[in-house]
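User: Hi! I'm a student and our assignment asks us to look at how structure tokens line up with a sequence. Could you show me two examples?

Assistant: Happy to help. In each example below, the sequence comes first and the structure tokens follow. Example one:
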Amino acid sequence: MCIRTSILALMIFSLFTGGCGSKSSSPDFGFIDGYLATWDRFAQGANELVPQLKRDTPKFERQLAEALTQGDKRTPSRLVFYAVVQVGGFITYDSDLGRACERLVGSEVSIFTSEKGERSYFAGDLYLWWQRHHGEYEAFPLYEEWQQRDFAKRTVIPMYESATKKK
């Protein structure tokens, strides 16, 4: 009898909470921010971080996509930073993160199609979208810092601005 009661209680709990390990769980911003900090260190020359980045990318992209889907105001700055810190990076359109990105930017950001037919959001386009919309969302301190670095100001940002003007 006790087992039936326990099972019934678990079923009721599952109905009201979405079950164990539900997809709608809260994204882990500690993990998200840690991953982005690791990417930033890699971008500055810490090549030994490649295995860690490769291992953590799927989890990071799932967490970021979930946060975007939930409309968390902290997420857009992190999405854009993820693309721009890769210097010419892309967010694959045909992925959970790409679809979450689409819900955020709509038709304001064009989709780049490679010669192989792969569709992506280009970092430069996302950067310019953020410049227009940053007041609507929470800033990411590491992104704010990155924008003030000489390399970003003298090389990356001008490259993004130039690339998007050519369209």
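Example two works the same way, sequence first and then tokens:
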Amino acid sequence: MMPSMDDYRKGWALRCLREARAELLAANKNPYMSSDLVLDAMKKAQAAIYYSLGEPVFIEAIVRQHIGENKHVADPVLRFLVETERAIQQAAQTTDKDREGAVQLAGNLIQMASDVVVLITGVKA
């Protein structure tokens, strides 16, 4: 059974997810600002995942530590979090010609974040 989530973190997870979707929609409507908006959408989706799992500051510190070690991560949840961070870092370095790939990656990350939020909160996100 999943541990219960307090209303504060649940509220922030849902808010971050809504904002991520809005940022991606704005990126699709405004190609001149799309790279910044796509990156913001990805970071907000990541924040939704972090709020769903626990205290974002602590989770981020653990993820950054494992990225710095550059070793295989055995724990599947931690591996997912590390790979998500790597994808965001890679997207931050994309050029305008890679825009479509970044938008697709952001959409996939938002969907995964939505799945995590629904799984943990029980609320349709």
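Here is something you could point out in your write-up. The chain has a mean pLDDT of 89.
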